[in-house]
Specification:
mainly alpha, Na+/H+ antiporter like fold, globular, 20 helices
């Protein structure tokens, strides 16, 4: 059976397919179908607080992994992703990585800030939240970026991913919410950043540790995606607000972060614009950001920096924000490669081949004359 091959055909499939499967099973659970509950009761499953029986709440390792495992699995993912952040980056790749990371981040923060000025930051137009906007627009799909720049870009474009990997996870989103006036204490930042920082430290101290942890960039993803889905109702994905918001996020991410990146590259005299367009996507792992932010809000409420009501507001939007970001991931997975192909054709008509570094193009021209 070609299960993995089929999953990989879906844009962001490693994240989206388990998420939808978890949501499907949780939706069936919440329907409380009599014969399913009778079957579970016959197996000796303990009833929930409201007296029902659910197969995602049978206790033991199963419930710990499939129902309640999202937060520790996301933490494991962040630790392993941090270990792959190579600090030894070539000068040109470093420059491009900084430009791309900064332009994408500042674009997402600016859009989030403007949204918060004119709409409810927790449930505004199309049911969007500032958190969902920043999480979707600032976190790019590193795997897609490498694939696209590997095919249409040059070596320094590909090498920039070492810096771009800094935007993996919820830390940049948390920092942006802090800048927008949310009262997160330092311990909330540390609690989110510590797994990434420890992973980065160990990965750069010992290449063998980095190699050992490399599978952890992908292995936990379907598991925490399933656990996130297990807290959602499948009806969320058929909510017109979720569909409209997800499409708007995806289109906005590709268009706005792509255009900003192109502008920044032009300002810094980069001829090829393949890299900024290739980075104009929403990462699948951004789907885990709302849950991580909600966990940080709990820490903030515990320290007195945020009221329980403010923290609960973040928990209340986790499911809808997760669904919106999931749809943005799918949307950009289609739009971003198409945009790169158009950019490549446009550049070639102007005599720019994105596969060559500027010095290589200069040598070729000199050789031709």
């Amino acid at each position: 059976m070609q299960i993995m091959k089929s999953v990989e055909k879906v844009p962001g499939g490693l994240m989206v397919v388990p998420l939808l499967l978890g949501a499907l099973l949780n939706t069936i659970d919440q329907m409380h179908v009599p014969f399913i509950m009778e079957f579970l009761k016959g197996l000796g499953v303990a009833p929930t607080a409201d007296g029902n029986y659910e197969f995602l709440k049978i206790g033991g390792f199963s419930e710990a992994l499939f129902k309640n495992g999202a937060i520790p699995l996301i933490a494991l993912f962040l630790f392993c992703a941090g270990s792959q952040m190579n600090l030894r980056v070539g000068g040109r790749a470093l420059k491009k990585g900084v430009l791309l990371t900064a332009s994408k981040y500042l674009t997402g923060v600016a859009v989030g800030f403007l949204f918060a000025m004119f709409f409810d930051p927790m449930n505004g137009m199309l049911g969007l939240s500032t958190m969902a906007i920043i999480a979707a627009m600032t976190n790019g799909n590193g795997g897609m970026y490498v694939a696209l720049t590997g095919q249409y870009g040059n070596r320094s474009d590909v090498g920039a991913v070492s810096v771009l990997s800094l935007n993996d996870g919820p830390f940049f989103t948390l920092m942006a919410l802090g800048m927008l006036g949310q009262s997160f204490p330092m311990i909330a930042f540390i609690a989110v950043l510590l797994p990434i920082g420890l992973g980065m430290l160990l990965g750069n101290l010992d290449p063998r540790i980095r190699e050992f942890l490399k599978p952890g960039e992908t292995l936990p993803v379907p598991f925490f995606a399933f656990a996130l889905g297990a807290g959602m109702n499948l009806a969320n994905f058929f909510n017109p607000e979720v569909v409209g918001a997800g499409l708007a996020l995806g289109i906005g991410t590709t268009v706005l972060t792509g255009l900003t990146g192109i502008l920044v590259f032009k300002i810094f005299r980069e001829k090829s614009q393949i890299a900024p367009v290739a980075e104009a996507s929403t990462a699948g792992n951004a789907v885990g950001t709302p849950a991580a932010i909600a966990a940080a809000a709990t820490v903030a409420a515990g320290s007195g920096m945020m009221t329980q009501a403010e923290a609960q507001a973040y928990h209340d939007i986790v499911n809808i924000a997760t669904a919106q970001i999931s749809l943005s991931t799918l949307t950009t997975a289609i739009l971003c490669p198409v945009a790169v192909i158009f950019m490549d054709k446009y550049q070639r008509r102007k005599g720019i081949d994105g596969k060559f570094e500027p010095e290589e193009l200069k040598r070729d021209k000199q050789a031709a004359t």
